[in-house]
Each structure stands twice: as structure tokens, then as C-alpha cells.
Design goal:
Blueprint (H helix, E strand, L loop, with lengths): L19 H34 L15 H30 L6 E8 L2 E5 L5 E3 L1 E5 L4 E7 L4 E5 L4 E5 L5 E5 L5 E7 L12 E6 L1 H8 L7 H11 L2 H4 L18 E3 L5 E3 L2 H9 L23 H13 L27 E3 L10
Parallel strand pairs: 1-5, 3-13, 4-10
Antiparallel strand pairs: 1-2, 2-3, 5-8, 6-7, 6-9, 9-10, 11-12
Bound molecules: dinuclear copper ion.
């Protein structure tokens, strides 16, 4: 059914179609347009035709109409079925868009007035640019440092608000190499229109070449540094019980709280526990032991710390690219951090 969407890409004024999902979403969109068009024509023609047919004529008295069950059932059931199709089709695509595949590569995006900062699991950073490998599912975990932004990549037909205070996510699987646009699609201040960038879909070889560029260690290694620098390691002892919970093997595991609830130690929970430690107290521990790190750590730092905590849980489904395990992989030391700006040398966007 989906194989036939390719022709849609040839319609002028349509954004490039660079993922399978983009084609499917376009197909639904054209279907909605077609239904709207048919209904508009039916209604307009009906209104004009009946106005003409039943216009006032001299010497003719109007006869009251008492309805027709057949007609009423027909005009109720047919639109109902058409709407059911819209509902089923839209829900199917929506659920798909909300469920990133298990093997998706996780990349972190932080929105800030007025730029997009990207962090890859291997520690590579980019600004207003995102490089992804062709054919691989990519999950973006996004946070905002100030106001509500919205991360949009029309070529993949994905867009999601990035709201301060928690993580938002979206995923896509690029199927066409190229240079595509990134927009902020939520008004976020006077330079909102300049909060733009480019996503480059590279084939695997080109991607490997690009990724070998350089960074200061993996995200987890950067997190480990912060863990020591901020004094976390004095209370969260890894080998024995300290004043605070041991962080080994907690990622994505249930945690019992002092108020009797049990929560999963996912990214959102870890983020909250770093920034506002008293929000949820682990059973058996005291409140007010750990300082608040709200305002002390940037969203990027929090992402690095979470990557480190993740790396302490070898069984956790780690994003590809990171090396899970207690000891961060002795990776070949890369040169100094390189923040890759939206490259000037790249070809013009395909739109
Ligand atoms: Cu950020 Cu508009």
C-alpha cells in the first residue's frame, strides 16, 4: 500500500520526502485534502442547485417535507465510515511516531534562545546542525534551557515542542541522503526566525568519516567528570553504601520511594532527582541531604550525568555508540572538542 507514495515527491511545493514515514504522512494528508475537496464541492453544488430548484415560484405553494429515513441513514453512515478511516489511519501513524524502535540511536538536543545544541553519545557536539546516518532510526531526546521551542524537520515530517522542565522526544529514520532544514516552529522571542539549522543525512561511510572528527570523550565520560567535579561521588559511592543511593544498575529499574510509590528510574526521573533531589526521596534515605542543582547545571550537563548513570547499568538498553559498562571504554583519545557549526561548504538544501 505504501510503495506508491513516491510520486508525491514530484508534486511542486512539497517539502522533500526523506523518510518512509514522511511519505505515509503525506499520503494521509492528501487523502484528507481529497475528502475535504469532495465534500466542499458536494455541499456547494447542493446549496446552489437546491436554492435554484426550490426558489419561490408564482402560483406554487410549498409542500412540507417530512424527512426520509433512507436518506438520513445514508448521510450519517457514509461520513461515519470515512471518519473511521481517518481515525484509524491517523492513529496508526501517530502511535508509530510515538514509539521509537528499540535500536534507535539516541541523540540529545537542547534548545536555547536562539540555537539548537546537539550532543551525540560519542561526545561529538554540533550547533544548529545534526548529522545522522542513512537508514538508521534516530531518537532525539530534547530539553529547553529557557522558553518553549519546537524542533521541526519538514523533510521527515517530524516536529515536537521542546518544553522547559522535562524531556521531549521524537524519532525518524532517514531513507534519503541529503541536506535538509531544521526550524524552530514555536515563537520564542525576537530571533525565533533565526533559530534554524540543517540536518545532514550521510551514508554510513561518510558518516563514519564525519563522526571520527573529534570530541572530548563520550557523553558518559564527560558525565563522569562532572560527577566528580560536583562532589556527587562523595555521597553516591559506587562500591559501598554512602549517604545517598548507589547508582549502579538503577537505570530504567523500579525505585521504591519513601512515600510508598514505585517509579522507574528513567531519564525524566534522573533529571528531576539531579535538579530537585527532594521531589522524590528514595525509601530509606533522608530529604535535604543532596543540594539542589537547579540553576547550577545546564541541560547539557544533566544529559552528560544521565549518560554516565546509564553507563553504570550495563544491562540497560544503551543507545548505540556508547559503551555501556562500569568502566567507560578506553576509547582512543580524540582531539579537543570541536563544535561543528552548520557547515558552510555544504550544498544548498533540497527545497
Ligand atoms: Cu526557538 Cu522559536
Amino acid at each position: 500500500m505504501w510503495a506508491s507514495y513516491r510520486f508525491l515527491a514530484d508534486i511542486p511545493f512539497v517539502a522533500p520526502i526523506a523518510s518512509k514515514e514522511a511519505g505515509q504522512i503525506d499520503l494521509l494528508w492528501w487523502f484528507l485534502c481529497a475528502v475535504s475537496l469532495v465534500m466542499t464541492v458536494l455541499i456547494f453544488v447542493g446549496v446552489i442547485a437546491f436554492a435554484f430548484k426550490y426558489r419561490k415560484k408564482p402560483g406554487v405553494d410549498p409542500v412540507p417535507v417530512h424527512g426520509s429515513n433512507v436518506l438520513e441513514i445514508t448521510w450519517s453512515v457514509i461520513p461515519f465510515l470515512v471518519m473511521l478511516v481517518m481515525f484509524w489511519w491517523g492513529a496508526d501513524l501517530f502511535f508509530d511516531s510515538q514509539n521509537p524502535p528499540k535500536d534507535a540511536e539516541e541523540i540529545f538536543v537542547v534548545g536555547k534562545q536562539w540555537m539548537w545544541k546537539v550532543q551525540h553519545p560519542d561526545g561529538t557536539r554540533e550547533m544548529n546542525a545534526l548529522h545522522v546516518p542513512l537508514g538508521k532510526a534516530v531518537k532525539l531526546t530534547m530539553a529547553s534551557e529557557d522558553v518553549i521551542h519546537s524542533f521541526s524537520m519538514p523533510a521527515f515530517r517530524v516536529r515536537h515542542d521542546v518544553v522547559p522542565g522535562h524531556y521531549d522526544a521524537l524519532w525518524f529514520r532517514p531513507t534519503k541522503a541529503g541536506h535538509y532544514r531544521i526550524f524552530c516552529t514555536e515563537y520564542c522571542g525576537d530571533r525565533h526566525s533565526q533559530m534554524i539549522g540543517f540536518v545532514d543525512v550521510l551514508n554510513q561511510d561518510d558518516y563514519n568519516t564525519w563522526a571520527s572528527g573529534g570530541s572530548t570523550g563520550t557523553l558518559a565520560e564527560q558525565g563522569q567528570q562532572l560527577f566528580t567535579q560536583n562532589g556527587c561521588s562523595t555521597c553516591h559511592l559506587l562500591a559501598e553504601q554512602g549517604r545517598c543511593p548507589i547508582l549502579k544498575n538503577v537505570y530504567n529499574k523500579p525505585v521504591e520511594l519513601s512515600d510508598g510509590r514505585t517509579v522507574i528510574a528513567d531519564d525524566a526521573y534522573l533529571r528531576e532527582s539531579i535538579l530537585e533531589p527532594n521531589a522524590k526521596i528514595v525509601k530509606g534515605y533522608d530529604a535535604n541531604v543532596m543540594p539542589n542543582f537547579k540553576g547550577q547545571l545546564s541541560e547539557e550537563n544533566v544529559i552528560q550525568l544521565i549518560a554516565y548513570i546509564k553507563s553504570l547499568s550495563p544491562a540497560a538498553p544503551a543507545p548505540t555508540g556508547t559503551q555501556p559498562g562500569a568502566a567507560p571504554a578506553p576509547a582512543v583519545k580524540k582531539p579537543k572538542a570541536v563544535i561543528k557549526e552548520a557547515a558552510v561548504k555544504l550544498p544548498q538544501p533540497q527545497q
